[in-house]
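User: Hi! I have a protein structure encoded as tokens and I'd like to know what sequence might fold into it. I'm fairly new to this, so please keep things simple.
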């Protein structure tokens, strides 16, 4: 049986491809959730990785949860409310903790529909590029449920506009790649044949920088979202002191 996440490394760039095109890369099994954790832990422990690209196989990026199982109260959705709560906590919520928790820069190359949890999966990445065939929907309310995988935290930060975030979450409306660009949900829209080319070009530019500087910079940017300036400056001073004593920094100075 093939893994759900295909792992390919080229130099300092890892490309993760969701690999269930027949099911539109839906997130539906505990094995998938565990696989996200395993793959992300592997990346965090590997100093040879500087950038991650996340994309989907087939025509979709990720269709989100399995609606058929929801309807049948089967699989991940069976049991009483307490059991469901625990299944969310130890199941799909592994994905935001793992993907958002990656300590290297991440690029979502959204090749098609990113719906519900699939939309949130794209939001877990630092940078989002979209194909002209991509679409996005924070669609939970249309099923009478709520974003159970962190979307209520991720969406406002991704669009940096509470009014837009509320609109998307309250309507569940599907929006096009062009509208997502206008909303600030993605930073670039490409023709389908150019999407991965553009993602890899951007990844190359990022990966050219020392891994320690990338990982520490990402941590600072994340911390800046909730720390006071004084606290962030203190952390920055510590990280900068470490950076000044790396071989990479010394080599760059020697080359100037």
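Assistant: Happy to help. Inverse folding works backwards from shape to sequence: for each of the 256 positions I chose a residue that suits the local structure. Here it is:
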């Amino acid at each position: 049986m093939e893994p759900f996440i295909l792992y390919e490394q080229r130099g300092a760039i890892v490309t993760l491809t969701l690999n269930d095109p027949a099911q539109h890369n839906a997130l539906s099994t505990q094995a998938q959730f565990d696989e996200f954790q395993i793959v992300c832990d592997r990346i965090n422990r590997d100093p040879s990785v500087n950038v991650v690209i996340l994309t989907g196989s087939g025509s979709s990026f990720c269709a989100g949860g399995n609606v058929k199982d929801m309807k049948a109260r089967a699989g991940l959705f069976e049991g009483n409310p307490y059991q469901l709560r625990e299944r969310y906590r130890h199941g799909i919520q592994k994905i935001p903790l793992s993907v958002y928790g990656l300590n290297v820069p991440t690029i979502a190359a959204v090749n098609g529909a990113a719906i519900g949890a699939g939309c949130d999966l794209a939001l877990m990445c630092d940078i989002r590029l979209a194909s002209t065939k991509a679409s996005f929907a924070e669609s939970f309310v249309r099923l009478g449920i709520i974003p159970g995988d962190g979307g209520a935290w991720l969406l406002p930060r991704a669009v940096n506009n509470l009014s837009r975030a509320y609109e998307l979450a309250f309507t569940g409306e599907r929006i096009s790649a062009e509208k997502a660009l206008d909303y600030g949900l993605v930073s670039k829209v490409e023709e389908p044949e150019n999407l991965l080319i553009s993602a890899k070009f951007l990844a190359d530019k990022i990966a050219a920088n020392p891994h320690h500087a990338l990982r520490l910079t990402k941590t600072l940017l994340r911390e800046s979202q909730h720390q006071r300036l004084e606290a962030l400056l203190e952390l920055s001073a510590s990280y900068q002191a470490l950076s000044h004593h790396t071989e990479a920094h010394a080599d760059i100075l020697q080359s100037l």
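A useful reference point when you look it over: The first helix runs from residue 30 to 44. Feel free to ask if any position seems puzzling.
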